[in-house]
Specification:
The chain has a single domain, classed as 2-Layer Sandwich (Nucleotidyltransferase, domain 5). Helix content is 49%, strand content 23%. The protein is built from five helices and five strands. The protein has a five-stranded mixed β-sheet with strand order 3-2-1-4-5. The longest helix is centred in the middle third of the chain and has 20 residues. It is globular. The protein starts with a strand and ends with a helix. The mean pLDDT is 90.
């Protein structure tokens, strides 16, 4: 089974892939879709749709896990993130990919044992768990792989694997 974790964003959208058989992870990888921030929001969302579609069509994950919206001081950022999440959720729905959502706090707790962990701590644990080829994936890519890992662990604990 292949799970894709997605850390949504309109400028940086991280994705992480976990492939596993039974209770063992056999492959992991992550990357970021980068979009020029000076472009209008509608253009960025169109680019996000096109690029996330290519990722989904290439890897054909059976399940997707998306980080839910968190509260932020800047209301404009929340709305922009909501638009990006909407594009991602639509793209997943169009492909009939099963979707699960976790809050950032749930993901951090599942990966580090601390729901208030820093991005650096999450990135460290992901590097430690998967010994990625590159020493330090971006925060967004590591977060996406952490989201997928959180879901994998929940499935494993609930014996759905």
């Amino acid at each position: 089974m292949l799970i894709i974790g997605i850390d949504p964003g309109s400028r940086y959208c991280g994705y992480g892939l976990l492939e596993f058989t039974g209770k063992n992870v056999i492959a992991a990888g992550c990357d970021v879709i980068r979009i020029e921030e000076k472009l209008p929001l509608s253009t960025r969302l169109d680019i996000l749709y096109t690029r996330i579609s290519k990722v989904l069509d290439e890897y054909k994950p059976e399940q997707a896990v998306v980080e839910s919206i968190f509260f932020h001081k800047h209301i404009h950022s929340i709305f922009t993130l909501g638009h990006a999440r909407g594009v991602i959720l639509l793209t997943l729905a169009q492909r009939h990919i099963e979707l699960t959502e976790y809050s950032p706090r749930e993901v951090k707790k599942a990966i580090t044992g601390n729901g208030n962990a820093s991005k650096k701590q999450v990135r460290y644990m992901i590097n430690h768990l998967y010994k990625l080829r590159y020493a330090s994936p971006s925060d967004d890519a590591a977060d996406a792989l952490a989201i997928a890992t959180c879901h994998f662990n929940k499935l494993k604990l609930s014996s759905q694997l």
